[in-house]
Amino acid sequence: MDTISKTDPIVEFENVAKLFGELRAVDNVSFEVNQSHIFGLLGPNGAGKTTSIRMLTHILAPDAGTIRLNGRQVGSETQRLLGYLPEERGLYKKMKVGEQLVYLCRLRGMTRKDAEKSIRYWLGRFSAEDWVGMEVSELSKGMQQKIQFVATVAHDPDCLIFDEPFSGLDPINSEMLKEVILELRNAGKTILFATHRMEQVEQLCDYIALFHKGKLILSGELSKIRASYGKNSIRMRFAGDNSFLEKLKNIRINNRSTHFAEFRLLDGADDQDILKESLKHVRVLSFEYIEPGLQEIFIDSVSQ
Amino acid sequence: MLNKQNLLLIIQREYLTRLKSKIFIVSTILAPIIMILLLVLPIMIQSMSGDRIRQYHVYDETGVVGHKLAESDSIYYQITGQTPGELREKLLLGSVEGYIVIPHEILDGMGIPAFYHDGSAGITVISRIRSDLQSAIQDIRLDRLEASEELRAVLADRFTVNNFTVSESGEETESSGLYALIGFVMGFIIYGAMIGYGAIIMRSVMEEKTSRIVEVIASAVRPLDLLMGKVIGVALLGLTQFGIWALAGSALMVSAAPVALMFSSGNGEAVEMAASFPVLGPMVWISFILFFLLGFLIYSSLFAAVGSAVDQESDSQQLQLPIIMLIIIPILFLFPVSDDPTSTLAISLSMVPFFAPILMPVRMAVISVPFWQFAVTILLMVLTFLLLIWLSSRIYRTGILMYGKKASLKELWRWVRQS
Question: Pick from B5, B13, B219: which is nearest to A59 by CB?
Fold first, then answer.
């Protein structure tokens, strides 16, 4: 396991466990997140990502282990250092956007004046200044998502947590969110992501932690992890009917579409044989070794 | 222990958003109007329907009682020479509404007058006829006996008993059944308030769950702060609403009192009753507000726990039931407690924190409750409230993250121990 120890970590999980009855939702998990990093908590649904986040936000208490934020054990005092966008999103429907945002900022210890200033900036950033006086129930879903995002960042927290941030977002809001996240990182904020859509965060994350059935199976710097796997996958582009892919033996396909496939050679397979076989069915446009995708790394780690 | 700044913010939000809500404004205005309508409408309907002119035929074998009746109201009572048989025919045909048969033995203290009608005579008509007959026959019999004025006065005399409660310190206070009535009214007001505002708390917690803002809130404030803020905010709202009603009510009383007196000038009874309306000491009012508040706080903590355990109002019924039972039990004991407020049963029941909000004000309205009982009860209630809100916040911690699952009481207890 690759541990990060360049500077003092912002977030530290030390042998953290959480049980729900018999279920070990989080099982002896340790990892660290450093400042200004974008850290991805990855894994399928039910792997323990959301439970870990809820312990970090002090909604749930761990049954064992310690969680620290900025060197302090997580508690109600550390809550205001965090901005949290939960997977289940919502706002007070009958409350005006402006009042609501000010309320949420002040709950995290901001003064009214500072809150209003920050909210004005962020609403402007999303061209949403005109919604201040509207009730949330009057806004469209896309508009509500923007307000929810402002509610997450407006109190200027050191550390931001996004649980499945892109689910339910339209492509425009999605792009905007990515932009803002990078902007926040450049401003020195630490960002934690949790998602099961690994390909979505591949371009964003610097560091990752892979969860499976409550356990942390892999963590570290994404580029290093990928490099350690070497270029063990093949990406092939082709023209023609892709049904021949089924007939190829001794490979595992990780990603495919009509004119494209990413796969790994299994024991005993020879790349030249695969290429020859493919040429019988389609025109091969490219055939190259690449570093594995997150999906591939995950599957590989789970099967070990 | 509590985060004061967050507590104040939550109280402020809960109070102001509800104060400005349409439901609050409408219910504040409509509730007294509906109450007044419920009181006034039946009287209005009665007086409207009572306006119809009725006429009953009197078949009088004595030859004097009928005249006496007709003297009192010649339209209502019509002496007739027709026989009961003929009158019966006419009644069947519908040309006669009703008739009275007065037997001749009545003046000797025997026989019973009979009243036949087509079914249109209600209790008011029957009781009027009975009382008219009674005074007519009594007068005639007294005349026959050549009774003196004094004797008549003695017979007509009605008297009351003045009740005085003598307290331990020797003070005398005039007491009347009205005190018990006031106690009842206070008990019912507190009962209604606990159920009504309790439901507001429950919905307030549930609303955060259904709108899914709850995780954002829970990541910013502690459950205890949140629940405490909600409960206090809604308590202030309740006080505001009752304050508005009390102010409007007393303004109405002050402005309406002269008018009412003018109308009732012919009616000595009403004036007398208004004059004998008991004056309550400030202690009773203060304790009423105190028990109102504490009762509200205790029950809202319970309702808050229910709200956090469910995400649909229909699922809440099962969990609400035990709470509603706790509120109803003291209502069942209202009468025995006000009837014998110093009995062991009354004292012990009124000191149970869950029953005190209803039973203690009732006892305080009727008698002067010893200070130690008052003080101990208040202390017990405060402790109960603190314990319950703490328990609720533990249920809340787990409950808010549970969706689409009906929790049982057993499960709630597990959440308390777990979190």
Answer: B219
Average pLDDT over chain A, rounded to whole? 87
- Which residues in chain B show pLDDT less than 70? 1, 49-51, 167-177, 256-280, 403-406, 418-419
Give long-range contacts, CB 8 A cutoff, 24+ apart: B19-27: B19/B237, B19/B240, B21/A94, B24/B237, B24/B241, B27/B241
**Shortest alpha-carbon distance between residue B16 and chain A (Å):** 11
* Cross-chain Cβ contact A90/B17 below 8 Å: no
Q: Global pTM?
A: 0.77
Looking at CA atoms only, how far is residue A192 from chain B in angstroms? Answer: 15
Count CB pairs under 8 A between chains A and B: 63
> For A124-136, what is the mean pLDDT?
90
What domains are defined for chain B? 56-156 (3.40.190.10), 175-418 (no CATH)
- State the pLDDT at residue A98: 93
A102 part of contact set with chain B, CB < 8 Å: no
Which pLDDT belongs to residue B262?
A: 59
Nearest to B213 among A57, A79, A91 (CB): A91
Query: What ipTM describes this predicted complex?
Result: 0.81
> Which chain A residues are Cβ-neighbours of B220 within 8 angstroms?
79-80, 104, 107-108
In B, minimum Cα distance to A21 occurs at B418
Q: Do B212 and A89 touch (CB under 8 A)?
A: yes
Rounded CA separation B354/B263 (Å): 44
Residue type, B380: L
Indicate the range of A20-24, A148-152, B234-238, B392-396 predicted with least confidence: A20-24
Q: 3-class DSSP state for residue B53?
A: coil
Structural domain for A297, as ranges:
230-303
Neighbours of B246 (CB within 10 A): 12
DSSP B62: S
CB contact under 8 A, B214 and A90: yes
Of the residues A195, A227, A259, which one is the last residue of a structural domain? Answer: A227
**Nearby residues of A200 by Cβ (< 8 Å), 6 or more positions away:** A166
- Choose the final residue of a domain: A227, A254, A288: A227
- Rounded to the nearest angstrom, the minimum Cα separation between B192 and chain A is 26
Q: Please count the CA atoms within 13 angstroms of the CA of B88 that sit on its side-chain side.
A: 5
